[in-house]
Amino acid sequence: MPESPEVEALSQFLADTASGREILGVDVLEFRTVKTRAMPPTTLEGRTVTGAARHGKHVELLLDGASLIVSLGRHGWMRWLDAGEPEPGPEQPPALATFALSGDATLQATDAGNWVSLGLHVVGGAQDVSAIAKLGPDPADPAFTRADFDHALGGRRKQVKAILQEQESLAGIGNAYSDEILHLARVSPVVHASALDDVGADRLYQATVSTIRGAIDAQRGIPIDQLKARKVASMRVHGRAGESCPVCGDTIRDFSFASTTAQYCPTCQTGGALL
Fold this sequence. Notes:
The protein is globular. It has helices spanning 4-17, 130-133, 146-153, 160-165, 175-185, 198-219, 227-234, 266-269; strands at residues 23-28, 49-55, 58-63, 66-71, 76-81, 95-101, 105-111, 119-123, 253-257, 260-264. The longest helix is centred in the last third of the chain and has 22 residues, at 198-219. It contains 8 helices and 10 strands.
């Protein structure tokens, strides 16, 4: 699942590379991606890209008079093809929509899943998309404070891993980076926010900010087709069940969480208890 560091790098790439180009043609190959029937993606033809921005895990392509919001979901991404570059082979994620741009470039919206998670919204502005309007504060934002974080936790009787991934509470974090944050903070993924003392909450806040901002810095300038591999390579515990914890040497373990699998270190995070 793309999370804020990768989506930030993607939006920066689009701002740098697509700005000033006109959309010459739009071809939607999977109509379940279209979320705004009154303004389908074809209404973007003839408009010029003026920039790009990130909102949580959503990309906004800014155009004169409209915005294209790409909700990447669990498996969505975007692919850039320069003039003369061949179409990717069948081993690559399929394009569900393509945008022909001036300068003989092509922007493709792709989805690698067995079900369609990608969404395309053509709107007047990002706040017209309900999922963006409901986003909580973003830990990547320089204005994000401990007070924002404490408000998200709210002393709730809810697992902190779930809160970290709850977009209405904190924008941009998914399964992978929440595992990394919790490991760095030495906090169990299943502990309730209400059970955290001030020291634990402070460690979790510091880990959230440093993990997300550090990953954004590390992903900056990486070619967008290499971002997923770079993310995987950077993980300390996520996706590394059976390997040794880089901090204590214990074996990293799996546990089931919200219809997916997450990872943790028993010694660092749960006092040796297995989840």
